[in-house]
Write a structure and sequence with these properties.
Number of helices: 9
Helix content: 40-55%
Number of domains: 1
Radius of gyration: 24 Å
Shape: extended
Order of helices and strands: HHEHEHHHEEHEEEEHH
CATH topology: Cytochrome Bc1 Complex, Chain D, domain 2
Strand order of the largest sheet: 7-6-5-8
CATH class: Mainly Alpha
Bound molecules: heme C
CATH architecture: Orthogonal Bundle
C-alpha cells in the first residue's frame, strides 16, 4: 500500500512538474494535433511502425502487449515480422533491454515509459497529444547542448532528436522578450533577445534593451532546408501521436463508437416510452 501511494505521488509530481518547467519561458508554442488521425487505421499503423523503430530502444511501453496491435488492423504475422526486433513474442509486453540506471547515466534522465504518456502530459493548459505533437516538432540543433539538440517546447531536454533524418536540417529563430535583472542595480528591465541557430547548431544572439513597458513573449520560426520533407515529417508525427494516444486508451475509439449507438438506442427508447405512456392513458383520462 505504501509503495502504491509513493508511486501515485510520483505520478502526480511528474504531471505537475512537467508543465511548470515548460511555462518558465512564457508563451510556448503548442500546436493542435489533428485529432481525426486517431480514427484512421493507416495513420495508427504508420505511427506504430515509427514507434517500434525509433522510440522503443530507449522508451518502454510496459502496459502494452504487442498483440493489442490487432485492434489497429495488424495480424500476428505482421506484428512479428515488421515490428518486433529480437526474440519477443506477440503476447509479450513492450519492454526494453536498457536498464533505467544505465539510461540515467547516459542521458541524465531515464526516458519515461510511454504507455500512458499522452494522458500523463495533459494539463489544465493543453492536451498531452498537442504537447507531444509540438514537442516532437520542436527540436533544433544546438551545438552548446550535450546531445547536440535543444527543444523549444522543453528547453534543455535530455532526449536527442531521433527522427531528425526524416525531418531534414532546419534553422531556428527564437525571438523572445524577457525580463533581465541588472546585477549592479538590482533593477529589472525588459530585453529583446533574438537567437538564430543555423542548421549546424551555431547560435547568433542579439540582445536589445527595451525602454518602456513590454510584455514577455516567445516566438519561434523554423526554416527547413527541404520544406516538403518537413511537411511530410509533421504528418508522420501526427501518426505517431495517434499511436501514442491509442496506447494510452486502446479501447477509446471503440467506446466512442459504442457510445453513439447507446445514445441512438436511448433516443429511440425514449420516443417509444412516451408513445406507450400516451396509449395507456388515452382511454382513462
Ligand atoms: C536515445 C534515446 C531516446 C529515444 C530513441 C527516444 N527518446 Fe524520448 N526521451 C529520452 C530521454 C532521455 C527523455 C527524458 C528527457 C528529459 O526529461 O530531459 C525522453 C523523454 C521523452 C518524452 C517526455 C517529455 C516530457 O515532457 O517529459 C516523450 C513524450 C518522449 N521522450 C517521446 C519519444 C518518442 C515518441 C520517441 C520516438 C520517436 C522517443 N522519445 C525516442 C530518450 C529517448
Amino acid at each position: 500500500m505504501k509503495k502504491l501511494l509513493a508511486s501515485l505521488a510520483a505520478v502526480v509530481a511528474l504531471g505537475v512538474a512537467a508543465p511548470s518547467a515548460l511555462a518558465a519561458g512564457g508563451e510556448l508554442p503548442i500546436d493542435h494535433w489533428p485529432e481525426k488521425r486517431a480514427h484512421e487505421l493507416a495513420a495508427l499503423q504508420s505511427g506504430a511502425r515509427l514507434f517500434a523503430n525509433y522510440c522503443l530502444n530507449c522508451h518502454s511501453a510496459n502496459l502494452m502487449r504487442w498483440n493489442r496491435l490487432q485492434d489497429i488492423g495488424l495480424d500476428d504475422a505482421q506484428i512479428k515480422d515488421f515490428l518486433i526486433f529480437g526474440n519477443q513474442k506477440v503476447g509479450d509486453l513492450m519492454t526494453i533491454a536498457m536498464r533505467p540506471a544505465d539510461s540515467k547515466v547516459w542521458f541524465g534522465k531515464t526516458p519515461p515509459d510511454l504507455s500512458v504518456i499522452t494522458r500523463a502530459r495533459t494539463s489544465f493548459e493543453y492536451k498531452g497529444t498537442d504537447y507531444i505533437y509540438s514537442l516532437l516538432r520542436g527540436f533544433y540543433r544546438d551545438a552548446s547542448s550535450p546531445t547536440g539538440w535543444n527543444n523549444v517546447v522543453f528547453p534543455s531536454i535530455g532526449m536527442p532528436h531521433v527522427l531528425w533524418q526524416r525531418q531534414g536540417p532546419r534553422e531556428a529563430t527564437i525571438d523572445r522578450v524577457l525580463p533581465v535583472v541588472d546585477e549592479k542595480t538590482g533593477r529589472e528591465t525588459m530585453v529583446r533577445e533574438v537567437s538564430v541557430y543555423d542548421a549546424a547548431g551555431n547560435a547568433q544572439v542579439t540582445r536589445t534593451p527595451l525602454t518602456g513597458h513590454a510584455a514577455e513573449s516567445f516566438e519561434v520560426t523554423f526554416k527547413a532546408a527541404d520544406p516538403a520533407a518537413a511537411r511530410q515529417y509533421d504528418s508522420e508525427v501526427a501518426d505517431l501521436v495517434a499511436y501514442l494516444a491509442f496506447m494510452t486508451d486502446p479501447s477509446g475509439a471503440e467506446r466512442v463508437r459504442i457510445g453513439v449507438w447507446v445514445l441512438v438506442f436511448l433516443a429511440f427508447f425514449a420516443v417509444l416510452t412516451w408513445w406507450l405512456n400516451r396509449e395507456y392513458w388515452k382511454d382513462i383520462k
